[in-house]
Design goal:
Length: 342
């Protein structure tokens, strides 16, 4: 039997403690045609020395500076030859046989460009994890959510999302991607640095006619929040800025005319609400994000990674507003909101 080549690439930044904790699980992977790569993103701890001493079989790619998630992976993957890439966070615990179900699914359907496993929480192992849960969706206004996670509410896993299905975006914490399609799309958009770059890439892939899938037959456990913890103002800034940039890039111009002002207005409401409740840092992060987005529109727009073509509409888009459903109608579960509307 012929097995396509798979390269698991971990982007590391000062993550020695995660490498110590999680690499032993990765080395138990049973996939036969596998290479393991750690792309060090300008770490200032002793991650590289630790790897050289304890894991001489793992290939190390070193960057002198921290290029962020997006450019860091773009730089690293140019140096890796493989049929499939697996972009894996350093704080992910994999399970035996986690690679095979995803590769089998993608091999059966050559249109599947990216896929993610079921992602559960390392801290509460029977609950979905924030960063991807059972596969990402988007609402019509650009708000991301997941099967099993809406805003900050993560559902308990009772097998309710155990079917392999089309999704809008696959989590960058454990993302399987066809190498040739990654290159065709130009990879991640370097400008994003971190946060939502995987959503942007999956959107462009779908517009080009490819599919994104979740494969719950594969399970991983994610710690989460290792680099930029929840509540970090820089994380807030990147999420708001990158989401608006992503909408500018991927929406058709008729949709951009009204959806982007609408989103900007909702962002402003959220910012003022947090200011009045005492979180000035959140308010300033959103303000900085909007200013940075406007600067991008004026100066960098033509330099971004835009859809290579538009031949198909994206799947797994909720034709409504999850902000309304969550905060006004008090709906907390994915199934309560989507209710089969795709």
């Amino acid at each position: 039997m012929s097995y396509p080549s798979v390269a698991v690439v971990i982007l590391n930044w000062n993550g020695k403690k995660y490498l110590e904790q999680f690499l032993p699980f990765l080395l138990k992977s049973t996939y036969p045609n596998l290479q393991l790569v750690v792309a060090d993103n300008g770490s200032t701890d002793d991650s590289v020395e630790f790897l050289k001493k304890n894991y001489p079989g793992i290939r190390i790619l070193s960057s002198p500076v921290n290029e962020g998630f997006a450019k860091g992976y773009n730089t690293a993957l140019k140096q890796v030859e493989s049929d499939y890439y697996v972009l894996l966070n350093s704080d992910v615990e994999v399970t035996p046989g986690w690679i095979e179900p995803v590769i089998q699914l993608m091999q059966r359907n050559p249109l599947i460009a990216a896929c993610q496993p079921k992602m559960l929480s390392l801290k509460q192992r029977n609950y979905f994890e924030y960063a991807g849960a059972a596969g990402g969706w988007l609402d019509k206004y650009g708000y991301p959510f997941s099967r099993g996670r809406v805003f900050d509410v993560c559902e308990e896993d009772s097998g309710q999302y155990d079917s392999a299905e089309m999704i809008f975006w696959a989590s960058g914490a454990a993302m399987f991607v066809r190498a040739d399609v990654y290159r065709e799309m130009g990879g991640f958009d370097d400008f994003f640095f971190a946060h939502q770059e995987e959503i942007d890439l999956c959107w462009r892939m779908q517009l080009a006619g490819y599919l994104i899938y979740a494969c719950p037959g594969s399970v991983v456990y994610h710690l989460g929040g290792g680099t930029l913890p929840k509540g970090n103002s820089q994380k807030t800034f990147l999420n708001y800025r990158n989401n608006l940039v992503m909408l500018c890039k991927n929406l058709q111009w008729k949709e951009r005319l009204w959806k982007i002002p609408y989103r900007a207005g909702l962002d402003a409401i959220s910012a003022w609400k947090n200011l009045f409740t005492g979180d000035a840092g959140y308010f300033l992060a959103v303000l900085r994000a909007h200013l940075a987005w406007m600067k991008w529109v004026l100066t960098k727009r033509k330099q971004g990674h835009f859809p290579v073509k538009r031949v198909a509409p994206p799947h797994a888009v909720y034709n409504g507003n999850i902000v309304w459903e969550y905060f006004v109608r008090n709906k907390r579960r994915f199934s309560e909101i989507v209710d089969g509307k795709k």
